[in-house]
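Justification of resources, computational component.

The compute hours requested in this renewal are based largely on the per-chain cost of generating structure records like the one below. Each record pairs the submitted sequence with a full structure-token output. That output is archived, and it is also reused by downstream analysis tasks.
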Amino acid sequence: MHEMDWTMSRLCSLLIILAVTSSHNISFIVAKGESTSTCEPSEIYVGDENMSSTWEFMNAFSKLGTSWNHVIGEYIGVVQGADGKEMKGDSYATEVDEALKMLHIMVKDSAATSDEDWSFSTTPLNDFGKTIDDILLAFIRWSMVDNYHDNPEDGNSCTLIGGINHPPSETEKINVSKAFRRLTAYQHWMQSVSPDLQDPPLTFQSIKSTLSIFSLHVSHDECERLVWFVNLGKTDLANLKSQSPRETTRMFVWIAHLLFLDEKAQTKGLIVVDDMADIGFWDYMTMLPIQVGISVDRFLISVTPLKAKNVVLMHRPKWAEIGYSLLSWFLTKKMKNRVTMVEKGQENDMMMKVVGGAKFIPIDFSDVEGLISKDIIAQHY
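The structure output for this chain reads:
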């Protein structure tokens, strides 16, 4: 877990950037025993009407008790582990079955030589009809796919924005050590919040009421990639602010497993479509309890075995546009290529290019045409 030595105002400011630049607008999970306070009006008093320029946006951070440089540094720390790294001495496999056996051995050896808990007791396996092998396979697939490999001749080409994951060629090997490092990070994070996940066991029924506060949908697009639709404008803010951090934690951990245990998400990739609904600076900053949001962004970006092919931002407020334009100076070309901005009036045309059209979009998502009446969550639960 990340060190909890930030001031509350620094955490508030960091959430702005994470909301604008990452694929995860869910920055509010905390390990048991940490603060449950929210940002108070005395901490944040900069409204959208006062943010019409880059200077005003950057100056707002001093009013939040931090600095732009500090925020940039914290964000870079989150995304550094997004794709993992190859390291000297790593172990490789040539086939998935071989890789799975090797990963089992690494887990067994770790359990025998350390105090690590490798029981996966808090992982919602039963609720998804999955096994420990399915968990390990998700991390192996994360390790073996290449977000930027583009070979239309392999028969798996996709014309939608972002393309799809591609497996390694016959001459490339699977880095099992890389998968194990990611799996270890996952195990550590799950253990850090285990008191909140055990009683009752994490199931859809146990998080259903919390899920209803948010407008979240999941479907597959024309290229069979998994698409996560997030509509901030339809969040029940009154109920959300009265929600306990524990229940919010449980709901988003369950959602994360729904996403990364999906076979198409593993083999084709993940798309995130986020309708920011022109949400105001103050409304966004106070809509969720703060509880160390950086922890969840680490979980989703640097811990779970997810490969985001495209992050789509719709109906961006002025403060979000300014924030992204500033941060874009620090993003790599690969990161920038993952982000698609949808301008007003172009929603339906762009969503055709993003997911393939209305038949892949939930009916009540944003103001775009959608035909899906029951998404993956509704179908299965």
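The chain is about 45% helix and 10% strand. The mean pLDDT is 78.
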